[in-house]
Amino acid sequence: MKITFLGGGNMAAALIGGLVKQGFKAADVQAVELSAEGRAKLESQFGVRAVESLDEQALACDVLVLAVKPQQLKAAVAPIAGRLTTQVVVSIAAGLRLVDIGRWLGDYHTLVRAMPNTPALIGAGITGLFADASVSAAGRAAAEQVLAAVGSTVWVAEEAQIDGVTAVSGSGPAYVFHFIECLQAAGESLGFDEATARKLAIDTVLGAAKLAADSDEAPGVLRERVTSKGGTTAAALASFAADGFPAIVTRAVAAAEARGRELGEQLGRD
Ligand SMILES: NC(=O)C1=CN([C@@H]2O[C@H](COP(=O)(O)OP(=O)(O)OC[C@H]3O[C@@H](n4cnc5c(N)ncnc54)[C@H](OP(=O)(O)O)[C@@H]3O)[C@@H](O)[C@H]2O)C=CC1
Ligand SMILES: O=C(O)[C@@H]1CCC=N1
Considering the entire predicted model, what is its pTM? Predict the structure, then answer.
């Protein structure tokens, strides 16, 4: 399977790196990237062909992944409008709706919306997928194969749910990194040096996530097992509750989902 990425920034690099690490042949992966520095990095890091514009060789692919920023997508696809034939086009752009992307591509509807996340770089991503009704089973399978190479995948029943996936798992790694930053800073405030506080924070998140993933129990049950009556964890959780931690998370995720919808509505008017 030949895969071309239109846009070779952060997310494309995470996906390309993941694909190559998982055994996809670098010769079958291409990237179209405006910045010369970005192209040089993709070529040297992953051995893929990186070009400045979508030439015939880059267009001759089975799956074309649209990996530019939502605000850049309409202009980025303009040169290929009306030139697509059988390629499955997978947009990973936040918010943008298939109907608008299809229109910008010159009424081309072999389209899939996908929302991956950056842990794809180490094969630990999670991607939500939604396909236009006209995409064949083989087209869906091709899109899924690309994203499944870099982590797990879930298909959603309605396109609007991709904005929810974006808010929970697309943006989610940033929330977790932010929690790690905060836990590290809290450790430093207790007198640990930076390296020790970072290790305590990262290994805790890693271990807890692994335990939650490997366990049949709900995360709430695992939380209760840490929480001795009248103990230290109970003191911390009472402080979280008093500060409204669950509502803080719910509001943040709702803000991300609303921003996705807003981006789709705003940019789709064009
Ligand atoms: N980062 C993440 O965690 C995730 C991002 N996404 C989605 O992925 C997409 C890309 O995000 P991200 O990788 O973070 O963004 P980046 O800005 O890092 O990457 C986009 C790249 O595309 C380049 N570009 C812009 N226009 C063109 C063009 N016409 N032809 C070729 N290349 C072009 C940009 O160059 P220049 O910088 O010069 O403009 C930039 O290098 C977005 O739509 C985002 O919503 C989805 C899931 C997770
Ligand atoms: O912040 C963003 O808009 C993109 C989409 C999901 C992660 N990054």
Answer: 0.96
